[in-house]
Amino acid sequence: MEKRNFYANEAVPLRIVIKNLSSQNQSFTIYERRDDTVPPYTTFQPVVYDMKGRECETIVPYRMENRYTADAVKDMDRRTIELRADEEFVYSMNLLDVYQLVPGNTFRVRSYFFPNFGEKNILYSDNELRFTIQADTLRPLKMDKSEKTNEITPSEITLLVLNAEKSKNWQRMLKYINLEEFINSYSNFIQSYSRAGRYEREEIRDKFKRYLCRDRADYLLNYEIISEDIEDNNRIAHVVVEVERFAPRITERYKYHYILEKNSNLWLIISMEASVMKGVKQ
Q1: What is the per-residue pLDDT across 89-135, written as a single tens digit (0 to 9) for each?
Q2: Domain count along the chain
C-alpha cells in the first residue's frame, strides 16, 4: 500500500508482490474469467480482519455460497506466469471488490498466495498491513474562484505531463518528473538502479529517460482527472486519473494513481501506479 488512510468513497488498492528467490525458474497459475470486471479472488487472496481479529464480511460470490476456491476455479480460464531468478510479479487488487469494509474503522490485511490449487501449496505474506477508512469522503476537485494564487496545482502538473506525452513533447514531460524517485515505480529498472554506483546510476537514468520518451504502440487517447488529495502536511499529493490507451481491438482503460511531492513551490511527480479498468466506459 502506498498510503494507509483512505476516504469513504475511495478505492483501497493493495499491491501483492511475488518474487522468485530461488536460482531456478518458477511458475504459478492465475485463474480468471475473461468477462470478469474485477480481479478474481483465486491465486491471490488477501484476508482483511477488524481490530478484534475477526475476518470482515466477504462479498466474493463463491465464498458467499460457501464454496471452496478449488471448486470455483474448475470452470475458469488459466494462464501460467513464469518468473526467472530474482524476478518479480506485481498483482493489484481493490480490497473493496472483495470485502464490505465499513468506513470509520481500522483494519488489518494479510495476503495468501496459491501457486497451484492442484498441489495444495499455500504461501502467506511476510508482513501484515494496517489501514484506516475514514468516515469522511474524498474532497471534490475544485478551485475556489476567490482564491488568488499563482501556484500550479498537482492536478495541473499531472495534466501537463500527460499532455506532453500525447504531443511527444518529451522535454516538457520530464520537466515535471523527479526521475530519481519516479524510477522506483518501474520494476524493470529499480533493481539495477538500487545496486548501482554513482556513475552507473547516471547511465541507468539516461536509459530510463529514453524508455519514458519512447514511441509506444499503446499511445494515449484520452485522460480525465478523477480526484486530487493533498495531505495535511501540504508536501504530498495524490492524483487519480482515468486513462485510455490505443489497442488493436478495443481501447484499454487504466486508472493511474500519481503521487507528487512539493519542491519549493513546484509539484513534481515521484510515483505512479497503474491498474487495469475493466468494462465499457458509460
Answers
A1: 888 889 999 999 999 999 999 999 988 887 777 888 877 889 999 88
A2: 2
Whether the pLDDT of residue 1 is over 50: the answer is: yes
Amino acid at 79: R
- Rg (C-alpha) for the chain, rounded Å, is 20
Whole-number Å distance between alpha carbons of 125 and 19: 11
Mean residue pLDDT of the chain comes to 86
Same structural domain for residues 126 and 162?
A: no
> What stretches of the chain show up as alpha helix (H) in DSSP?
61-64, 69-72, 154-167, 170-175, 179-182, 187-195, 198-212
Q: In what order do the strands lie in the sheet with 236-245?
A: 220-230, 236-245, 252-263, 266-277
Looking at the structure, do residues 104 and 170 belong to the same domain, yes or no? no
Q: Is there a single domain that holds both residue 85 and residue 176?
A: no
pLDDT tens digits for 273-282? 999 886 444 4
pTM value surpassing 0.90: no
DSSP codes joined into one string, 50-66: ETTSPBPEE--HHHHTT
pLDDT category of residue 187 using cuts at 50, 70 and 90: confident
CB-based burial, 83-102: b 16+ in 10 Å, e otherwise = beeebebebbbbbbebbebe
Q: What pLDDT, on a 0 to 100 scale, did the predictor assign at position 149?
A: 55
Cα 148 from Cα 6, distance rounded (Å): 29
Give the domain range for residue 160: 154-277
Q: Which three cell numbers stand for residue 60?
A: 466474493
Do 112 and 52 form a contact (C-beta atoms < 8 A)? no
Q: Residue 59 and residue 79: Cα distance in Å, rounded?
A: 24
Question: Do 160 and 100 reside in the same domain of the chain?
Answer: no
